[in-house]
Design goal:
By secondary structure, the chain is an alpha+beta fold. Among the domains are: 57 residues; 99 residues, no CATH class. The protein is built from 7 helices and 5 strands. Strands 3-2-1-4-5 form a 5-stranded antiparallel β-sheet, covered by helices on one side. The longest helix has 33 residues. The two termini are 27 Å apart.
Length: 268
């Protein structure tokens, strides 16, 4: 599947998700409509990410690696390289890539020997940036879709009577006891997790707000904030004084910050 086809697949999924989500929402209610729309968009973007990743892997496996020279910039680096037969070719990289390279310096390029015009600047942004973007647009809608699907299923069921004799969960098994959700050890452990999460959140916000001189530093701040949100989610799970929505929201927030933070660090 070509890059153009993956883009068409993604936007087809977006339009189909919006249209089908609106139809399902009109027929079954808003929660089901949002769930179906998000899941369809997420599946389409994830499929595009997998297809583009496979295409890039095939390209890297068969492409030749040479050193080109930066000849200028026009909405991205202009790099000239020579194929094995000595013929000069030019490739245009994505905007922002190779920003630390001065004109005339070496820039790695991959090209197909059978078709030297099919060449890509050999850095993460140009080779794998599209895969990362589709992954972001796939993972978050899938997470939101699963969340709203859970809400829709919960709303469609009658409220069950509270079961006071529930079986012990994994944390209670580890502690060799089964008891109420407000057991003292739960409060202590979840409290320690919340303190740790608060500390990580402050560190992450410090990086994001004050140590953001580069994309990598901003991404590091987002990554730490995502880790803090995951710690809060664990605290909610341990305490068990709320339903599944609290931990789910915390983990979705964590996923978003980790993906964007990690992506920024990789693209820097």
């Amino acid at each position: 599947m070509s890059e153009t086809q993956t883009i068409i697949l993604f936007w087809s999924a977006v339009l189909s998700g919006v249209a089908l989500g609106f139809l399902v929402g009109w027929l079954r209610g808003m929660l089901w409509g949002v769930a179906v729309g998000c899941l369809l968009i997420g599946l389409g973007a994830s499929s595009a990410a997998l297809a583009l990743a496979w295409q890039r892997w095939q390209f890297v496996s068969h492409a030749e690696l040479v050193d080109g020279r930066l000849t200028g910039r026009r909405d991205g680096p202009l790099v000239e390289f020579r194929s094995a037969d000595g013929v000069a070719h030019q490739v245009h990289g994505l905007g922002g890539s190779q920003s630390a390279v001065a004109e005339g310096e070496a820039v790695p390029v991959r090209y197909l020997a059978r078709d030297p015009e099919h060449a890509i600047v050999a850095d993460f942004q140009n080779l794998w940036g599209g895969v990362l973007a589709f992954t972001l647009f796939g993972a978050l809608p899938l997470a939101f879709g699963a969340f709203f699907c859970g809400l829709a299923v919960q709303a469609s069921r009658p409220a069950p009577a509270r079961d006071t004799q529930r079986p012990p969960d994994v944390f209670e098994k580890l502690h060799g006891q089964a008891g109420a959700a407000e057991a003292p050890w739960r409060k202590r452990l979840s409290g320690n997790f919340i303190i740790c999460g608060n500390f990580l959140m402050l560190v992450g916000m410090g990086f994001a707000l004050f140590l953001n001189d580069s994309i990598a530093e901003l991404g590091r701040g987002f990554l730490i904030i995502g880790l803090a949100a995951a710690v809060f989610g664990l605290a909610f799970l341990i305490r068990k004084d709320s339903d599944w929505m609290g931990p789910a929201i915390a983990f979705i927030v964590a996923l978003g910050f980790v993906l964007f933070g990690g992506g920024a660090m990789l693209l820097a």
